[in-house]
Structures are given as structure tokens and as C-alpha cells.
Design goal:
The structure holds 2 protein chains of 2 kinds. Chain A is an alpha/beta fold. Chain A contains 13 helices and 14 strands. In chain A, helix 3 runs parallel beside helix 11, helix 6 (174-187) crosses helix 7 (201-216) and helix 11 packs across helix 12. Chain B has 2 domains: 2-16 and 29-133, Immunoglobulin-like (Sandwich), CATH 2.60.40.10; 136-418, Orthogonal Bundle (ABC transporter involved in vitamin B12 uptake, BtuC). Chain B is built from 13 helices and 14 strands. The model of chain B is unreliable at 13-28 and 123-133 (pLDDT under 50). Chain B: Keywords: Amino-acid transport, Cell inner membrane, Cell membrane, Membrane, Signal, Transmembrane, Transmembrane helix, Transport.
Chain lengths: 431, 431
């Protein structure tokens, strides 16, 4: 009989241990920047000062909650590198690319991938897709004097981050997407709006920007729920939303949005009675196919980036025939081209030299739209202004694009969206 | 209510037509403000809208046209004040909430939308009054829904907790790999339905059988061997963490990181049962779960094997010397535990999605349920798990949903302080 007591103690220890383990799983990322602290003291350390070969590493999602964004982004980088090398490479040598996985914020994959890329003498790293992941490795990358160039980060936290001038992105900060999304929600006549947003830098930032736009346009945000993406279920979150009974429901998140939607459908907040809005993190042509036909009919979504022209999409299909989404492919392509052009302009492949020239090649000069033309102009000693597939790409002092385009997409009864947008809205990030 | 829904649908329909007609040219004209006025599904003609700058200088006026649309171009970006002249509204209409002023911002090259939602002005449905009158009933609806969700979640936890509790009771092993047994149930179901092509119900049955077989094999070739060697309980607990990691990443390798629903019953629309809205699959799943739990509990109390299992839990040496085949009992418990855990996975995958971390995310709640209910009792795991499930869901009435697991863990701590043996556990003499 006395056996139970010590066993009970073991189980109590086990409960506490599992708590601690769970906590570790989520928190490990924060430890990563510490390792870069020594490197940070010298502004331009070792980082392969002009080893003659431009090495571009990618840190993009092959796994994790943003894995849907991975294939088009890798394809964008692959296409650009292929074209650059076909045009003779950078500084007379072919560009080297190394692909790595960024995982998501629940894993420590990104940190290991960055270590690997730095060990391979990367001069610039394209990634990550998730703002949360980028924030967890930005110190390590910029501390090593390497350019950190994201094609898809939209959190406005990254605008003001102390990045030593090495962080750039071709995706616009969420100020603009929030503004367009809010205006869209109001224009559809939703005077009461509910927002369900993922708890991270991206989710809360975009939710705040959207709320601001909705309120300014005359709508009312009756419920704003920030949820834990690792929660066992979302029924309580949805029940809270249902009690507020909003006309428009804005879903800001990643892959877990599918679970949230199942819960919305279960509790009767369906698209025939409420208007749903998605964003770039959960816009997908694959995730909703198992739903009954018509479930997603009329759902609208916003996605930063101008239309990827048919010719560009065809070229991407040649790289990866399985692509169904093209989210951020143009941004990835432009990021790679810009890095190559900046290296060409700086006549050096060192990260700090590339960063110093990125602003210059993106604006003010003779316009050109592909690597070969731009590189020829540079070799002729001209100042260039690279206009990419994703937009004019003109960097401001923070390394953000100053002007950007947001597309508005709509789902049909077959639960997929038309990759041709309903409309595109172009605006200044600053307003 | 029905009339309101019809009116609202018609209103949205009209709006979409209006927008698609007006949008194309509106953007080209530079900055401005616009909106569409509709009342009970009909456009409202002849309403006067006045736009002034923030300081009150007049900018322009517009009157809504036959389609209810109005637009005022503005000279520059910035904040404007938009006023609606209530005297020009139809006599029975009013602006929702009574505020006739909006202060939108206009950004470069964009037209901002301003929304005045119109509602009936007569006494029966005063703006703002209707939602307040139903606020209390909405709250109770939410309580009912959350109670239902608590049982829904609690029963799934109970299934998993029962296996863990039985294995712990008979062998003393705190099995951290139990969460992965749950995941396996869902993954097997997914494999046999989506890949092999069986109907989901049949696939679920196969998954439960496979789960049982996996439990049997684990004990036959792994845990039984360790037990025979006399490995300590703490050592076995650490080994189980290793097994959990191994299984989790093996699942990740074969299944991938996505979160996928079964190919049937995904997004099954909810039906209203009294104040509760839930999908038919939820009710059926809960019925199956409850039946299995009660049958298992009774089997433990009434059958020979059940009595033998409880004897082994009390004192294995004494049980062995009184003629019980301890190893056989433990093997039956492992088989049953694995099968019931797999059933929990099948049900969890049904109400949400299949994902490689689904079991791990629930493990803490399973431990909480076991500890809370008390060890060595037939129905302890059931009661403990239901309390955990209910607390998680109902606590969201007061705490933000992202903190919902806190409630369950708080109640765990309080119960263990007051009743260290758990809710149903027998008081043991310690020392």
C-alpha cells in the first residue's frame, strides 16, 4: 500500500518536468542572439571580405507553420541565381547558393541554419519568411557583418530594429497591408468586425494596424482575440468571437488558421452569414481543399506584392512544376537580384559593402528590370534603378521599401483563390 | 433575426455590385473619400455628406446617388472630418450608434472608404439597444457552448489519461511518450483514409487496432525487457522522453510538418442543439468516448483481469505470489492503453487536424488530468480530465483565451494542496 506515495511523487516531478520542457521548447530561440554579442562589438568583422565569390544563403521555411510559403520563395531565389549565372555571374564568378530551413518560432532550426550558412561564408542571407524567426536570428546575422534580406517579413518591429544597416526587405511593413485590409473590410459594409490574430510580432502588429484602419473608416472592432498558435483547440476563442457576433471576421495567422476555420464552421460562423478575411500568412490554394465545396466562397484576402506576371510565373513553374501559390516569389527573386547588383556595384562581395550599395541600386538612376541589363549598365559606369517584378523597390533609410503594392484576392466556391487579384492598391508606407 | 440576415445578405450583394462597378475608375483619380449608403438592402439616395479638413475648412460636399454611392475628391493626403446630414436620411433610418461624424485618413494615391451603417430608427430596434438587451443571454449561450467544449476536450484528454494512468499504476512508469501514442492514432487514421483510401470510420478502427498492437510490441520488446533487467523508474522515465523525441521526429519525417484534416468530415457545418452549436461528428465522437471510458472503468472494477490489474497496481510482489501472472496483466494494460490512446488521437484529429506535435501539445493536460483525478482509481482519470477540460474552456469567460491552460494548472495546484491524493484517490498513510 505504501507504494503509491513515492510513485505519486515521481508523477508530480514528471508534471513539473513536462512543464519545464514545454517552456524550454518555446523559449530556446531567445538564447540565440547572445552568441553574437562578442562579434557585435567590431562593426565589420571577418565575414569573408571580398573572397571573390558571392555566396547567397537562404533561410526559408521548408518545415513549420509557414511551410506553404517555402516553395515559391525558394523558386524565386533559384530563378534569380540561374539568370545571374547565365549572364556571367557576379564579379566574373558564378553566384553560389546554399538553401537551409528556417523552421518556425517553435523550433530552434533557424539558429542552426544560420550557423551553417555563416560557416559556409555566406555574404548575404535571404530570409526568413516569419518575422518572429527573423527577429530571433537578426543579431547573429548582422553581428557577423552579413546582409540579412527578407522577402516576406512584414512586422513593423523590424523597421526600427538596431540592425547596423544590414537588414533589408522587399516585403512592405504591415502598416500598408493593415491599412488596405481595414479599408477593404469597411468597404464591404462590415460595421462590426472581429479579429482573430496569432500571438507573435506579425500577428499582433497586423491586427493593430487593421484595427486602426477599420476604426478610422467608421467600423467598430467588437472583439480582438490574440490566440496561442500551439493551443490544443480554439473553441473557446471562437466562442468568445461568436458572443460578439461581428459581421466581418479577420483571420490573421499561419497554418493553424485551418483549425480556427474548422472551429468557426462548427460554431456556425460560416461564410454565408459572415464575411471572412485572410492575410498573406494564411492565404493558400492547398490548405482548404478538404473543406466541403463552397465553404470558402467569397472569402477575401490581402497579399503584399504586385501581380506576378504570367511570364514570370511560367519561369517559376519551370524551376518547380508543383507550384500552386506564388506568394513572395517575386520578392525573393528581387531580393536575390538586388544583392547581386549591389555586389557588382560595390565591386566586392563582403556583406557590409553590399549593404552600402543596396539603397543606391534600388533608386535614382537609369531604370532597368533584369539582372543582365542592370549589370551591363553598371559595367558601363552608370547609376541604376532596379525595378523588380514585385514593384519599384526603392529602399528608405530603414531598409524597407518606400512604396509597395497590396493585392486583394478572392476565393471561389472550389475553395481556391484566383491568383489574379481583384485589384491592386499601391501606396507609400509612410502615408 | 431571419429578416435581418436576408436584408444583410442583400445589402452585401448590392455592395459588391456597386464596388465592382465603381472601383476601376475610382483609384485612378488620386486621393479622395467615398462610401456607399444602404438601408435594409436598398441603396439610399440623396443623403448629404460634408467633408472638411481637421481644422474645419470646407473641402467638398456630395450627395449619394441612385446607387447609394458618394465620393468626394480631396486635394491632399491627411486627416479629414466627414459629416452625414441626418435630416436628409429617410425618416425611419438612423446611423448605427448615433455618431454622425467620421475622421478617416487619406493616403497618397488612394481613396479611403467611409462607412455609415444605417439601421431602423423606430423604437423596436433602437440602434445599440438590441445587442445590449441580448448581452446577458449571449453570455449564457457562451457558457453553455464552453461547457460543451469542456466536455469535448475533457473526454479526449480522459481517453489518453486512462492509458497513462493504468500503465503508471501497474508498472510505475511515467510515460512521456504517451503523447506520441495519441499522435500515432491520428496519423494512422490519416494514412489509411487519405492514402490507402478507406473510409475514415474504418480507418479509425484500423488505427485503434494498430495502436493496441504498437502498445503490445512496445511492452513485449522494449519496456518489458527493461523491467526484466531491473532498470530504475527514473531511468525509465528519462528513456521515455527519448522515445517520445524519437517517435515525434519519426512522425515528422514520414508525415511532414503540415497540419492536415481527414479527407472526410473536415469542415462539417455545425447544427444548433439548444444553445449549443456543434458539428454532428462532435456529438458522435463524444458518445463513443464516453462509452469506451465507462466500459473500461467497469471492466477494471468487475472483470477478473481488471481486478488483477488493480491488485498488481497495489503490490506487484503480493499479486505475483497470489498466483497472478504480472507480466501478462501488464502486457494487457499496455495493449489496452495503446489502443485507447490511439482512439484519443483519432478523435482529436477528427475535431481538429492531424499534426506531428498534436500529442505533445496535449501531454501536459493529460498529466494534469491523471494527477488531479487520483491514481489507482477506476474513474479518476475521467473525472480529472473532465475538470481540466472544463476549466480550460470556462476560464476564458474571464481570462484572455491565450492564457486558457493556466486555469487548469491553477486548479491542479489547488487540488493537490488540499487533497494530495487527487479528487478520487484514497488517502494513503505516508511514511
Amino acid at each position: 500500500m505504501t507504494r503509491i506515495a513515492p510513485l505519486g511523487r515521481v508523477l508530480a516531478v514528471a508534471t513539473v518536468a513536462s512543464l519545464a520542457l514545454t517552456a524550454c521548447g518555446g523559449g530556446e530561440e531567445t538564447a540565440a542572439p547572445a552568441t553574437s554579442a562578442p562579434a557585435a562589438s567590431s562593426s565589420a568583422p571577418a565575414a569573408a571580405k571580398g573572397d571573390g565569390v558571392l555566396t547567397i544563403g537562404t533561410l526559408l521555411p521548408q518545415t513549420g507553420s509557414l511551410a506553404i510559403l517555402g516553395p515559391p520563395e525558394f523558386a524565386g531565389v533559384d530563378l534569380a541565381v540561374e539568370e545571374i549565372n547565365a549572364a556571367g555571374g557576379v564579379l566574373g564568378k558564378p553566384v553560389v547558393k546554399n538553401h537551409t530551413d528556417s523552421g518556425d518560432t517553435s523550433t530552434n532550426i533557424a539558429s542552426q541554419s544560420v550557423d551553417k550558412l555563416l560557416a559556409q561564408n555566406a555574404d548575404a542571407i535571404v530570409g526568413a519568411a516569419s518575422s518572429g524567426v527573423s527577429l530571433s536570428v537578426i543579431d547573429k546575422i548582422t553581428g557577423a557583418g552579413v546582409v540579412h534580406f527578407s522577402p516576406a517579413n512584414t512586422s513593423d518591429e523590424l523597421t526600427t530594429y538596431a540592425d547596423k544597416g544590414l537588414y533589408f526587405r522587399t516585403a512592405p511593413p504591415d502598416v500598408l497591408q493593415g491599412r488596405v485590409l481595414g479599408d477593404l473590410v469597411v468597404a464591404d459594409g462590415n460595421d462590426t468586425v472581429g479579429i482573430l490574430a496569432l500571438q507573435d510580432a506579425y500577428g499582433t502588429g497586423l491586427a493593430d494596424n487593421t484595427e486602426k484602419a477599420v476604426v478610422s473608416g467608421g467600423g467598430e472592432v467588437v472583439e480582438k482575440i490574440i490566440y496561442d498558435p500551439k493551443a490544443t483547440d480554439f473553441s473557446a476563442d471562437v466562442a468568445k468571437l461568436k458572443a460578439a457576433n461581428p459581421k466581418g471576421i479577420v483571420l490573421i495567422g499561419f497554418a493553424e488558421t485551418v483549425k480556427v476555420m474548422q472551429e468557426l464552421i462548427k460554431q456556425g460562423l460560416t461564410t454565408d452569414k459572415h464575411k471572412w478575411y485572410l492575410v498573406d500568412g494564411n492565404l493558400s490554394n492547398e490548405n482548404f481543399l478538404e473543406f466541403p465545396k463552397g465553404t470558402m466562397d467569397g472569402v477575401k484576402a490581402t497579399l503584399p506584392g504586385a501581380a506576378a506576371p504570367d511570364a514570370f510565373q511560367a519561369k517559376l513553374k519551370a524551376i518547380n512544376a508543383d507550384l500552386t501559390d506564388f506568394s513572395y516569389s517575386a520578392e525573393s527573386y528581387d531580393a536575390t537580384n538586388l544583392i547581386a547588383l549591389a555586389a557588382e556595384a560595390a565591386k566586392s562581395d563582403a556583406g557590409v559593402d553590399i549593404a552600402a550599395k543596396l539603397g543606391e541600386v534600388s533608386k535614382g538612376g537609369e531604370k532597368c528590370t533584369d539582372f543582365k541589363t542592370c549589370a551591363d549598365l553598371l559595367k558601363a559606369g552608370k547609376d541604376i534603378d532596379y525595378d523588380g517584378v514585385s514593384g519599384p523597390v526603392e529602399f528608405n533609410d530603414a531598409g524597407d521599401p518606400a512604396v509597395a503594392t497590396i493585392g486583394i484576392y478572392q476565393y471561389g466556391p472550389d475553395n481556391t483563390y484566383d491568383t489574379k487579384a481583384l485589384e491592386y492598391r499601391t501606396g507609400n508606407i509612410a502615408g | 433575426m431571419r429578416r435581418a440576415v436576408i436584408a444583410f445578405t442583400a445589402f452585401l450583394g448590392g455592395l459588391i455590385i456597386l464596388l465592382s462597378a465603381g472601383a476601376a475608375n475610382a483609384w485612378a483619380e488620386g486621393e479622395g473619400l467615398r462610401g456607399t449608403l444602404t438601408f435594409q438592402g436598398q441603396p439610399v439616395n440623396g443623403v448629404k455628406i460634408t467633408v472638411t479638413t481637421e481644422s474645419g475648412a470646407p473641402v467638398g460636399e456630395a450627395t449619394s446617388d441612385a446607387k447609394g454611392a458618394w465620393e468626394v475628391p480631396v486635394p491632399a493626403t491627411g486627416k479629414y472630418t466627414v459629416k452625414l446630414d441626418a435630416s436628409t436620411l429617410p425618416p425611419n433610418a438612423a446611423v448605427r450608434g448615433g455618431n454622425l461624424t467620421r475622421t478617416p485618413s487619406v493616403f497618397e494615391g488612394n481613396v479611403s472608404t467611409v462607412l455609415f451603417a444605417l439601421v431602423a430608427a423606430d423604437g423596436a430596434a433602437q440602434p445599440g439597444e438590441e445587442p445590449e438587451a441580448s448581452a446577458e443571454s449571449r453570455w449564457w449561450t457562451r457558457v453553455a457552448q464552453l461547457t460543451f467544449e469542456g466536455f469535448n476536450l475533457g473526454l479526449i484528454i480522459a481517453l489518453a489519461a486512462m492509458g497513462l494512468s493504468l500503465i503508471f499504476g501497474t508498472t510505475g512508469l511515467t510515460n512521456f511518450a504517451h503523447g506520441e501514442l495519441v499522435t500515432l492514432g491520428a496519423v494512422f487514421t490519416f494514412f489509411f483514409s487519405s492514402v490507402v483510401g478507406l473510409p475514415v470510420i474504418l480507418a479509425g478502427v484500423v488505427a485503434v487496432v494498430m495502436g493496441g498492437a504498437f502498445g503490445y510490441l512496445q511492452d513485449r520488446y522494449f519496456w518489458g525487457v527493461l523491467r526484466g533487467r531491473g532498470t530504475g523508474l527514473i531511468g525509465m522515465m528519462i528513456i521515455s522522453i527519448g522515445v517520445a523525441l524519437f517517435l515525434r521526429y519519426a512522425i515528422l519525417f514520414f508525415f511532414g510538418p503540415q497540419s492536415l484534416p481527414y479527407n472526410e468530415y473536415a469542415g462539417q457545418p455545425g447544427i444548433d442543439v439548444g444553445p449549443i452549436t456543434a458539428a454532428p461528428k462532435n456529438f458522435i465522437a463524444m458518445g463513443i468516448e464516453l462509452t469506451v471510458l465507462i466500459v473500461a472503468g467497469l471492466a477494471l472494477l468487475k472483470t477478473r483481469t481488471g481486478k488483477a490489474a488493480r491488485a498488481v497496481a497495489d503490490n506487484p510482489a503480493l499479486a505475483a505470489s497470489s498466483g497472478i501472472n504480472v507480466d501478462r496483466v501488464i502486457r494487457i494494460i499496455w495493449t489496452a492503453g495503446g489502443a485507447v490512446a490511439a482512439l484519443a488521437g483519432v478523435m482529436l484529429g477528427l475535431s481538429q487536424n492531424v499534426q506531428y506535435q498534436m500529442g505533445q501539445d496535449m501531454l501536459l493536460l493529460i498529466f494534469a488530468g491523471v494527477t488531479l483525478g487520483g491514481l489507482g482509481t477506476a474513474f479518476g482519470a475521467l473525472v480529472g480530465a473532465l475538470v481540466v477540460g472544463l476549466f480550460i474552456q470556462l476560464s476564458t469567460l474571464w481570462v484572455p483565451p491565450e492564457l486558457k491552460s493556466l486555469g487548469a494548472l491553477a486548479v491542479l495546484i489547488i487540488v493537490l494542496l488540499l487533497r494530495p491524493q487527487g479528487i478520487l484517490g484514497r488517502r494513503e498513510r505516508i511514511g
